[in-house]
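#structure-requests
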Amino acid sequence: MGEPTARVRRVGDRALLVACRDVGEVQAVVAHLRQHPVPGQEDLQAGALTVLVVLRDRRLQARAAALLGTLEVPARAAADGRLVEVDTVYDGEDLADVARLTGRSVEAVVAAHAATPWTAAFAGFAPGFVYLVGDGRGVPRRETPRAAVPAGAV
């Protein structure tokens, strides 16, 4: 078992926010709470470094906070979802930049990306926009974020 997850904050009068060290801990907390919900747990929402636990009744908040404050979870969650295969065309405008940043050829970037088992970790800023996590290796964020992401972009 991992270390206790002790950072729990109240959110309104019916929810709690559990702060996690990394996305792996987020996934482990969510997996654990799906199998072993706290009393009154109504919903879970994963974030990049947090898990929002929504409760059925505000009177359960203090008890749930105490339980979550001592929660121990494995360092990494076991996969509990289903496999979804997505046909992907690798021709995006960033492909050459990713190759340069990783010191690989474009072909090697495509092969590595296609061979990586990706996990949908949490939903992002728009419906259907899911953040994926893989083996932990990646490239830095863009210096200037895009105003829009092209449809079908990976």
